[in-house]
Amino acid sequence: MGAIAFSASSYERILGANDKIGFGLIGCGGRGRSVLKSFSKNPSIQINALCDVYASRIDEASSKVDGASNAKGYSDHRALLDDSKIDAVLIGTPDHWHAGTCIDAAHAGKDIYCEKPLTLKIEEGPEIVKAVRVNDRVCQVGMQQRSAAHYLEAKEKYFDSGKLGKVTMARTWWHGNGAHLRPYPTGTETMPSNLDWSRFLGPIKWREWDPKEYFNFRAYLEYGGGQITDLFTHWIDAVHMFLDQDNPTAAVASGGIYHYNDGRTAPDTISCLLDYPGQWTASFEATLAPGKKGAGIEMVGTEGRLYIDRGKFEYYPLEGEPVTVEARGDMTQDHVDNFVDCVRSRKRPNGDVWVGHRSAQASHLGNIAYVQKRRIKFDPDREEILPL
What we know:
Largest sheet: 10 strands, mixed
Number of strands: 16
Distance between the termini: 30 Å
CATH architecture of the largest domain: 2-Layer Sandwich
Oligomer: single chain
CATH topology of the largest domain: Dihydrodipicolinate Reductase, domain 2
């Protein structure tokens, strides 16, 4: 998974004001195709390349995403990165490929939009940040709340202004997320002939073809961090944004596989709690059990509380009438457009690589506490887990 050398032709070209940004998608699964559709709506983008280990997914992206029909297909992201027509990439692979692909893309002189979480393992974050900074790349992590109008309004009105008072508790939850319960298609019990299973595994130790692991990879800690890194990373990032703090010092967690005994290794029910030196705690709870659905954040302060999700926010003062503000616009489109603007301006985007690293890092602490069944103490300045 380490960085590799690329030919000189792959390094960045200077974009003129009217030049299209040559764009490639690495990982053409459902999320990759969905975000690519947002890129296709930006007039600066020209989709030139599609990459996946499963050829059928390249065909699907080519036929279902406007502007992608003439894109060149690749099975190896390194070949795509060596294409001089590519200026920027969207990384929509499973989590276990994020670090290697991001680092390779940075060294190849490409700007990067990477789906969250940025990392599979806590130690990968600093290496990605280093590669992005050394190569002076724009890197946006797909935590779209950073570009959402009603999240930014809530931050300005209730946190930056001090109107919420001293925040002591951030409660977050995300129940019943179907992305962790995806069935495999009928007929894939035998591996499709146009799918490169060995390349999909990449840094993961060898195991025989398992359609559950491929199509429902989020249920396996080998490929992702389960609900904590897939879902909590969104919410803890919003909390970090609201409070301008991203430095947890301790984590505890508890949960297990209580209902879906289908071979998964990620817990179907999980709770975790983080301590912050600003004298507040953040919690997350999630279950896939059929009896509970919904997601949100509740920030509790000394002057009131604020509830927020992707559809609205509600402010409840200690005295007076509550305030409700509905979401507006398309936060994913806004996040994509922010990235494209930064590719041209060379400014750091709303979800910069450092932001993505620190929010993933916070989530990883919860997972490590769960796996090791102990309270994790963390030095956020040195970014080191402290000994027992």
